[in-house]
Structures are given as C-alpha cells and as structure tokens.
Write a structure and sequence with these properties.
The complex is a heterodimer of chains A (230) and B (104). By secondary structure, chain A is an all-alpha fold. Chain A has 2 domains: 3-65, no CATH class; 68-224, no CATH class. Chain A is built from 10 helices and no strands. The longest helix of chain A has 29 residues, at 68-96. The two termini of chain A are 45 Å apart. Chain B contains 5 helices and 3 strands; from the N terminus they run αβααββαα. A 3-stranded antiparallel β-sheet of chain B has the order 1-3-2. Chain B has a single domain (9-91), classed as Arc Repressor Mutant, subunit A (Orthogonal Bundle). The longest helix of chain B has 13 residues, at 39-51. Chain B has helices at 9-20, 28-35, 39-51, 77-88, 90-100; strands at residues 26-27, 55-59, 71-75. With 104 residues, chain B is mainly α. Classes of the chains: A mainly alpha (230), B mainly alpha (104). The A-B interface holds A 25, 27-28, 30-35, 37-39, 47-52, 54-56, 58-59, 152-153, 155-156, 222, 226-230 and B 1-2, 4-7, 27-29, 32, 38-44, 46-48, 51-54, 57, 63, 66-71, 78, 82, 93-94, 96-97, 100, 103.
C-alpha cells in the first residue's frame, strides 16, 4: 500500500470512528480525527486510526447495550430462556400429577408434536434432573427481573445459569451412559422417521448459539457501563 | 463478579504516565508512546477516566494550516490522588475495590 493511500485510509477510518461514537462523545471523535492529522508516519497514522475505529465501535456497542430498550430485549430473552428451561419440568410434573391438559398444550411445543411421544421419557427422567432444570429456569427469571430493574450482576447470574444448564445436560448424558434402558428410551424418543431442518438443525443450533451471544452481550454491557471510581 | 474500577495494568500504566508530570498537558499519541498502549485501548481508558472526573481535557492551540488543534489531557486533583494511591498499593487497592463491590 502506498504512503498516500495509507494516509487517505487513516483519515477515512478516523472520520468513520468519529461518526460512530455516541452523541455525548462527539468531542472524542474530533480528538481521534485531529490526532491522526498530527502523526507524520503514514503507517503509524493508519494503525492509530484503526485502533480508534475499534474503540468507537466498542463504545457504540456499549452505549447501545446500556439503553433501556436493550435491557428490555435482554430481559425478554432471559424470560424466554427461563420458559424453555421450565418446559420439561412442568410437563413431567403435570404428567405425574395427571394434569394432562397441560401436557397436551405443551406437547405441541416439543419437537415430537404430542406429549404421548414423551411418556416413557417422562417416567424415566430422575427427580434430580427435574429439580435442576427448574433451578436453572428460576435463575433466568431472577436475571430477567434484575435486567428490567437495571441492576448489576446480570452477567454473573446468566453465566451461572448457563454453566448449571451445561452441567445438568452433562449429568443427564452420563446418566444415560450408565443406564442403557434410559439411553434406549431417549434414543427412541428423539428418533424421527423424517428429517426436519427446523427441528433437527436450526433449533438445536440456536439453542447453542443464542445463550453464548446473550452472555457476550451481558458481559459487554457491564464492562461498558460507567462505574464510579474505586 | 465485576472487577474493581481503575485497577487494570493498562489503567495503572496510563495513570502513572500522566502522574509523572501532572502539570503538563499531553496528547493521545504521546501517551500511547509513553505507555505502549494502542489507540484502541487508550481512548476507552481516557473516556472512562474523564467520565469519572479523574481526567481533564482541553483543545490545544492550532499549530498551523492543515493541522487541527490537538486534544490534550492531564489528571485532575482526584485523578492524581488515585494515581498516587495505585502507585503505593496497586494490589491492595484492587482487592479493596473488588470486596467493596460484592453485594451485601
């Protein structure tokens, strides 16, 4: 890249950084732009401008995530996560208490389409697993409440819930390895005669990726919140 | 648990550079050379310190045609006190800050 091209790109990137910064940081955008003009080495100016652009993007993202609307969206997602965690425990408890209307309603939300498909699995699922999924759901409910109240510590709560969910999933997997009858019930329940892109690929992928994105957003939101000096 | 504010090595390095000559106004590129921090790290730190009232900023005089005025920085009285505190006991300050942030 020629020197003049580097200089032009440095100016462009600095201008872009200035335009990306939140409105209350306008003077910082001007500071970034003017600093580039004072760096005589074109390569150093380009590096400086690229760093300034990265800083501006981070500031903008942090400002967006700290709005009430973003807090509400994150709370909504946490609430949806809580509901998805409660789905299996509520179905199992309702079935064991013979409140079958609840199972009929919820059965349509499961990948099989009807609760009768899950009867064997609901009978075989150990109580500790039901209790732990309920605990994860409760953690997410608390998280949603804290997000709505704009309280801090959301990331720690969510990360704790996520780790607990992974731990329960791992424990369930180990339980199936040790118990061939349970493994057979599980395999039979989740084996379908026809492939379905949404059920077999999209939903499982979303269930893995969305919580990680949520964790990233919460971490960034707390990192970028202006805190009083220690 | 969130970490305590202003205890990262980068922040301490920046506070140290600014506190070395607290009366001088310094520009961003100079601070970058003094601390080894890249602009992507330096600007968020400067912005945060200013928002906390630890840093003062002003525009310098124009240096000639095609050279816009530069943004200059120095520590406020509170910032200088913080820098001195971090210099004296960086780890203790970090621990105290972290403990103070644990919700009751």
């Amino acid at each position: 890249m020629s020197s003049s091209l580097r200089r032009r790109w440095a100016v462009r990137l600095a201008r872009c950084a200035a335009s990306l910064l939140p409105a209350d940081r306008t003077s910082w955008g001007e500071a970034m732009r003017s600093e580039v003009e004072h760096i005589d080495d074109h390569r150093a100016a380009l590096r400086w401008a690229a760093g300034a652009l990265a800083a501006a993007i981070a500031e903008r993202a942090g400002a967006l995530l700290n709005t009430r609307m973003a807090g509400g969206a994150l709370a909504f997602f946490a609430f949806a996560q809580a509901l998805s965690m409660f789905l299996a425990p509520v179905s199992i408890v309702a079935y064991r208490l013979r409140w079958l209307r609840i199972d009929e309603f919820l059965g349509g939300r499961f990948p099989g389409g009807h609760y009768q498909r899950f009867i064997a699995l609901m009978n075989a699922t150990p109580d500790w697993e039901v209790a732990l999924w309920t605990a994860v759901g409760l953690l997410y409910l608390v998280l949603a409440w804290r997000l709505l109240r704009n309280r801090r510590g959301a990331f720690v709560l969510f990360a704790g819930g996520l780790l607990l969910a992974y731990a329960v999933a791992c424990a369930g997997w180990m339980d199936r390895q040790l118990n061939p009858a349970l493994a057979e019930i599980y395999r039979h329940t989740f084996t379908f005669s026809q492939a379905n892109l949404r059920r077999d690929d999209l939903l499982p992928a979303a269930a893995q990726v969305l919580p990680l994105l949520m964790a990233g957003a919460l971490w960034w939101r707390e990192k970028r919140a202006v805190r009083p000096a220690a | 648990m969130p970490r305590a504010a202003n205890t990262s090595p980068q922040t301490r390095s920046l506070l140290g550079a600014l506190a070395a000559d607290p009366q001088s106004w310094r520009h961003g590129y100079e601070l970058s050379k003094l601390t080894g921090l890249k602009s992507g790290t330096l600007y968020p730190l400067l912005m945060r310190l200013e928002a906390q009232g630890m840093l003062a900023s002003r525009w310098g005089a124009p240096l000639g045609p095609g050279r816009p005025p530069r943004h200059l920085y120095r520590l406020t009285r509170a910032g200088l006190a913080l820098a001195r505190e971090r210099e004296r006991a960086p780890h203790a300050a970090g621990l105290a800050g972290t403990l103070a942030e644990i919700p009751a």
